[in-house]
Every structure is written in structure tokens, then in C-alpha cells.
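Reminder: ligand-aware prediction takes two inputs, not one.
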Amino acid sequence: MLDPDMKYLACSQRWLQEYGRGYADLLGVGHYEINPDIGEVWKAVYRRGLAGETVRNDEDIWRQADGSEHWLRWFVMPWHDEKGAIGGIIISIDDLTERKQIEPVSTETLARLGGIVDSATDAIITVDEEMRVSLFNPAAERMFGYSAEEIYDQTIDRLIPVGLQQAHRRHIQRFGKEGVTSRSMTSPGQLRAVRSDGSEFLIEASISKASVGGEQYFTAIVRDVTERNRTQNLLRESEMRLRALIEQSPIGLATSRDGVTVDVNAVYLQMFGYDSAAEVCGQPVIEQIAPRCRADVEGRIKRRMRGESVESSYESIGLRKDGSQFPIFISANRIEFNDGPLTFAFLIDISRQKASEEEIRRLAFYDHLTSLPNRRLLQDRLEQALRSSQRTGRYGALLFIDLDDFKSLNDTMGHDTGDALLQQVAVRLKSCVRESDSVARLGGDEFVVILEDLGVESVGAAQQTESISTKIFATLNAPYRLVSHEYHCTASIGVTLFGDQKQTNEELIKQADIAMYQAKKAGRNNMRFFDPKMQETINAQATLEGELRQALERRQFQLFYQIQVDGANRPFGAEALIRWIHPERGLISPARFIALAEDTELILPIGQWVVETACAQIKIWAQNALTRDLVLCINVSAKQFYRSDFVDSVRNAVQRNAINPGRLILELTESVLLEDIEDTIATMKALCEFGVRFSLDDFGTGYSSLQYLKRLPLHQLKIDQSFVRDITVDSSDVAIVQTIIAMARSLNLGVIAEGVETEEQRQILIGEGCDEFQGYLFGRPVVIEEFDAALSRSSMPFGS
Ligand code: C2E
Ligand code: MG
Ligand code: MG
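Here is what comes back for the chain with magnesium ion:
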């Protein structure tokens, strides 16, 4: 510390040492006094200090008068007195020379670093210029399999494969001459070393040099990279494999960061119609998503970015470069990396799956011919309609539509034509209803229409339905062009309304079906509403059917016999008429159950039973003189007659009972004869040859032409009772009866009148030339005992 005149005010202990003086010697002495040779440079620095500036230099090289050089760190700064005025300067000088001197590396120095060297995991090997080893740390011992003692003073060549020794030496010598003090020896994975057992291994090494006492030493830090190389190779390989997998997989892969595409594979490019990855990378992921799905996908991306758990797989719509869209399946996963999270998305084009799903749905729920909903989908729609009508309180209607005479079109014109008609009908039906209504095809020529939202009043709903039906009729009745010709078609419609009570699908369809049958019965091209009374009848019919099935085995049938007489009132035969003696309902007339039996085929076993019973009765009669010559008529249904085994079954019954077939007369109706004229003639002839005869029942009510009658092997015509009933009052009936009798005569057939109830009728019939009669006037149909009893009471001896 000096005053403005550069006289010492204070100084440090080191400063005293430097100048070789005591403290007292220096105080008050001028700096320039004790440094007479001080250079101008320093003086300038001091002046700056006295002027109030701080001047410093952290590393200054300074040449002494004796020529020696010193490294100095110094500063000169002003000091201020209590009034703030500059009181002088403070000089501080540090001699760094000693610290600055680079210490030459020696084995001793290295030994001092022994702790580090010993515990290093890398091998540390020092060699001299002759390449003799002077340091070999424990890691080197482990790595090379030599102890330090073994290797000291040996050349480094022992550690290097023979082929590499020369190159190695050259390398080190070159390094010795270079200006750098350290460098890595070669690129990793290429340098090899050899162990004491001769095995070679891959190393990575760096080398540094130092001189000690004029001698150069080289220190190598060596690392065994066999394992690391192996791992790296494995890693590289697995990376390559992964890359191949990604590139060759049929799945599109996209990597993204913060919603921006980073990388995509070839499949992805192909899927989205891009030519190169550059077109999509760097773009927002969302651009490959159809606009209507963006909000959804964006939401997922954002939630995923926030780290929220998001369903990783979902379906969406992709947007191709050309603007076309396609369904995709996306499976995305976010993975955290050191440089931030990446999202990996796998994308599969699911157009084909979607298409086949759609196809399956179409096959399962739509009719293949008309593409209308089928029965299954109808059930669905109907259920929905029912629910919605329950909810809104508004009526709906179910229309069951059946084409009239479709079967004959199909049979005569072929199925292709039939199909063409059905397709056109489907289109027309759809044109009649609103978009919200359903049209379905149940199969065959049956269609169903569901009308919804028909108002809250049943009357109004019915009126609306009626007007829609009228529209349907008009539309369906318009001519169709089928192949090359025009076709006209009518339909029958059954309707049931829904909405006022809980009903099931099945109930409704059944109701509409019943109504449709009523419409058909009413004469086609008609529409009928379902009526609960109708349902009752049908239910009763169903019960009857069930009971009818059991009637035969429960022996509930019985034949009643009605007498037939000649012009002189002499009995010559009987008609057997079936009765069902029901345990609860009592006697049921054939008018109530024959049609049902025919519909259900039950007429076959029942008819067979009639044939058997009649033959058995003829056999019994044959044993009695009074009845021996009676003929017995039985009624035969068309169903029965057309069975291929009919002829045999009659013949068998006749033969089994050993009766005269001439006693058996089969009554057929005109409708039977018309069904298939050639077949009819063949069957009749076969039975005639055998001796059985035929009577044509209910004659006059059908349409048989004389032409046909001529060809049939008939025995008799039976005038229908409807003509007999009014014969006394209706002259046209008389005319009909006259014609029938004339016709019979011309064909050489017998004539019998049925339903004769009064003497007056009998008289007129006799007058017209009729000679055989049946009716209440002579006797009602009665059980056999009664019949036999009546016969034996009869005053007129039979056959006389
Ligand atoms: P159908 O063959 O024309 O039989 C005549 C019907 O007229 C019988 O009715 C008979 O009882 C009734 N009748 C007879 N005389 C008179 C009369 O003076 N006045 C009136 N009003 N009616 C008279 P039923 O027995 O009720 O039989 C009805 C129909 O059922 C028969 O008509 C026949 O077509 C059919 N039928 C009866 N039995 C059988 C059978 O065993 N098999 C088949 N397939 N059908 C049968
Ligand atoms: Mg009859
Ligand atoms: Mg009759």
C-alpha cells in the first residue's frame, strides 16, 4: 500500500520476503527507490492507479533484469481516505511461475496417481520410446491375462496381433512427432489386441504422450469393446429387422410427435395415395383423416398428448391424397423417449372388412331378389314401430299384401318372369309409402308394409290406411311389362292397426294375415281390416283341427245312412254320410269339418275309414235277404281320389270284405272331375273295370261340359238339392232339372234327385222323368240300427 508519492504505507509478509527487508525498513521508503530500474510500463500502470483506475492482468509474462522470465498475476488499484479522496494505490503481484511450469510425466508421478489408475476399469498401459511397458494397471492385467511383473520391460508387441504390430509402431511413432498430446487410436470396432492365451479381442484406445527427463512416454487407455460391439451389432441387427418388419408389414405405420407426422412406411403411403414420405412428414396427422372424423381424432390426440388414458384402438375414416375416403382401423400408442414422447400409430385399411360386414348384413337382413328388408329385419322394424307408437300414442298399421294368382304366373311363365314381377311390385310398393315407412318381403308373393305415425284416433288411422291401400291397389294394378308381354296383377291386402294395446310382432302379423285371407275370400283385389270376431272363428278352427286329428283313433266318427228309393218308393240303396260324434259338442256335421280335413290332409285317413266301413256294411247287408241287393253310395274327396294308391285301397277293401263291387257307388263332385281330366278318366276306368260305379254328386252346380261327361265312365247324375228345393216355385229350376234329366238320358245315365222333402217336389220330379230319389221325405240320415229297423218295417218289400 503506497501513498501518492509511491512511498510504502504497508506491505505483506511475502512482499518483505521478496525484497529481503524488514517491515520497518520498508515503511516510508519510496517504491522507485528500492526499484531504481523499474520500467516505464509499470510507472504508467501506477499513474493510472493514482488517477483512480484499477488495472489488472491475470497472466503476464515478465522478464527480470537477470534475464529470467516470470509468470505474474497482478493488479493495481487506488485506495480512498475517509473523505473519499484517493489516498494512494495498492499493488498486488502473484508469481505464478512455479505453478505454470508443466511438470514432466514420470512413472513416479503416475504411481502417485496410483489410486485412480488401479481402480480404473479401462486398461492403462504406459510404454517408453522403445515400446517397453512401464505401467500396466490391474484392469490391463485382467484384460490381457498378464501380471504387471510379467509384462514390465516387455515390448507392447506382446499385446498386439502379429499382423498389426508394424502398423501399430508406425502409428505411435508418428503420433510422437505430432503437435497434439492425445488422440484416439482408431475408429471403434477396428482395433484388435491379443491376450496371453493368444485369443484376440476388439479394443478401443486413446493415447497420450508426455516427456519425462527428455524421454517420451506413451500412455494408452484401452477398453475391451467386444461386448459393446456385440451389443451394438445386435442392436443394429434388431433395428434392421424392425425396419424390415415395418416396411414389409401389410400394416401402415406412422410416427408422430405433438400431432405432426414424423415418419411413415411404404404401406402408409400406398394406403393414403402418396408418392413419398416427404409429402406427409412434417404435416399435421389430422390431415389424413376425413373432415367429419377430425374432431374425434383430434380429441384423442390431445388427450394422449396430455398423458390422459385414451382407448388405443378405434375405427375412423381416412382421407386419401385424391380426396377419396376409406374406413381405417387405428391403433396408437405413445412412448416416452429421452427427446420427448412419440406416438406410434398402426393403420389398417378396413374397406374390405367393412364391405363384407355390409354384405353379410345385406344377406342377413335383406331379400336378395327385391333388396327389400326380409322377415328378420321386418321383425326389428315392427318392434321399433310398436315401441314408438306406445311412446307417442300415435297409431300405426301393418299391411299384409299378397298378389293374386301369382302361383299361376309362376307356373305358366316360369320363375324368371315371376321374379321380374316381384321386383317391379317391390319398387311400386315403395313408391306408395313415405320414406319413414317400411316395405318388406316375407317370401313368395307376400309383402308387408308398416305405416307409422297415423294419428292418435283409430278412425283417422283407419281412414289414412284405407287411402294408402287404395293408392297401393292403383299402383299395383297398372300393367307390368314382363319380358315381351303385358301383365295385369291384383293383390289382396289385410290390415291391422296397432297402438292401442300391447301386442307382439307375431300377433300383429297373424292378424294382418287373417285379414288378408278374408280379403282373398271376398274376391281378390280387396282390402280387409282385421276384426277380432274373425280371430275367434280362426281360433275355434284351430281347436277343431287339433281335435280332428285325434277323432279317428278315438273312434269318434260314425256313418249315417240315408235311404234312396225308386219311383214307386221302394228302397234300393243308401248314401253313407259321415258324422263326428264329439264327446262335448255332440254331433258335428260334415259341413263343419270336411273342408278342414281336406286342408289338413286328414281327409286321407278319414276317407280310407269311410271306404272300409262302407265295405264292411255291404258285407253285413249281403248276409240278409232284405238288404242283400242294396247299393251304398259314399262321398269321395278330390284329395283322396288323386292319391296314387286310391284305386288299390278301394280294391283291397272290396276284396278283403269279399263283397260285390257293384254294390259300391263312389260319389264325386264336378270340381273333382275337372282337376285333371285324363287322370280322372284313368282312375275311374281302373275302378270301373273292377266293378265299382260312379255317381256325379251335386250335379248342375259345376261347369262340366257335355264334352267331358261323355268321356267319363259314369253310372249316374245326382241332381243337386238346390234345384230341388225351389222346384215348386221357380220355373228356371224346373228348366234346369229338365235339362239335367235330358242330358242323363242322352248319355244313358241314371238320374237321382237329392234333397226331396215334399210330395209336391217328388211329383214334379216324376213328371220330368226322374226315377230315383233321396231326401227327408223318405228318411233322414240315421245310424245303421235305425236304418235297418226302418227298412224291415217298410211295407214295401225291397227288390220286388
Ligand atoms: P252330399 O253328398 O250332397 O250329401 C247330401 C247332404 O244333404 C247331406 O248333408 C244330407 O244330410 C243332406 N240331405 C239329405 N236329404 C236332405 C233333405 O231332404 N233336405 C236337406 N236340406 N238336406 C238333405 P250332410 O250329411 O250334412 O253332408 C254334407 C256334405 O258333406 C255331403 O254332401 C258331402 O259332400 C259331404 N260328406 C258327407 N259325408 C262324407 C264323407 O264320408 N266323405 C266326404 N268326402 N264327404 C262327405
Ligand atoms: Mg253325396
Ligand atoms: Mg249332394
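The mean pLDDT is 88. Residues 575, 635, 667, 697 surround magnesium ion (ligand 2) (CB under 6 Å). We will return to this case in the review session.
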